[in-house]
Write a structure and sequence with these properties.
By secondary structure, this protein is mostly beta strands. The chain contains two helices and twelve strands; from the N terminus they run H-E-E-E-E-E-E-E-E-E-E-E-E-H. The chain folds into two domains: about 60 residues, no CATH class; about 110 residues. Strands 5, 8, 9, 11 and 12 form a five-stranded mixed beta sheet that branches. A four-stranded antiparallel beta sheet has the order 1-2-3-4, with no helix packed on it. Strands 6-7-10 form a three-stranded antiparallel beta sheet, with no helix packed on it.
């Protein structure tokens, strides 16, 4: 297998595995569980919503948790030296106490904008915890394969940045076939 085809297969596999990483809604025993609900204002605004199907066909909301966003200190955008190009967002911030944990990281893309919500999960009620900020640092890969060249905006909670793709970010199948000849 030549080098270009390997890159294509690996890149496609990374793209697919990331797409499948999101939890999917489920329906069992007349209960609809939706792991993430987006609003026009915020990606992942509500987490772990549950609805019950009533006998008359309506849906009754059992519960929904409003996402709690982590405190973001800074973001850094890294374009890796590869083709197709890969873009990572390095995020550093703080949690209110060491008893909080990073929660789901929700992403969506539209109109040359990536919106990322870095959430946190609070400790169980009545958990004793020292009151000191807990730092964190994470790397978030963006799904940029197949995007055309251009400028892109990134929003992570209350921070923003941008990057530019200098060329269309996809491997041409025709180019692969010609290189095999």
């Amino acid at each position: 297998m030549n080098g270009y085809l390997k890159v294509l297969v690996v890149s496609y596999g990374l793209y697919i595995s990331n797409a499948w990483a999101e939890d999917a809604p489920s329906f069992k025993n007349n209960i609809l569980k939706i792991p993430r609900v987006d609003t026009s204002e915020q990606v992942g605004k509500y987490q772990n919503s549950e609805f019950k199907l009533a006998p008359d066909g309506r849906w009754d909301l059992l519960h929904a948790n409003e996402a709690q966003r982590a405190i973001i200190d800074a973001i850094e955008i890294k374009i890796l030296e590869s083709f197709p190009m890969q873009v990572h967002v390095l995020v550093s911030g703080f949690l209110p106490t060491p008893c909080y944990h990073l929660g789901p990281i929700n992403k969506r893309y539209a109109d040359n904008q990536f919106e990322i919500a870095v959430n946190m999960t609070p400790p169980p009620p009545d958990t004793g915890c020292i009151t000191v900020l807990e730092p964190f640092a994470i790397t978030i890969p963006l799904d940029v394969y197949g995007l055309p060249k251009g400028c892109y905006q990134i929003y992570v909670n209350d921070k923003s940045g941008s990057f530019e793709l200098s060329t269309d970010n996809q491997v041409e199948m025709q180019l692969l076939m010609e290189s095999e000849d």
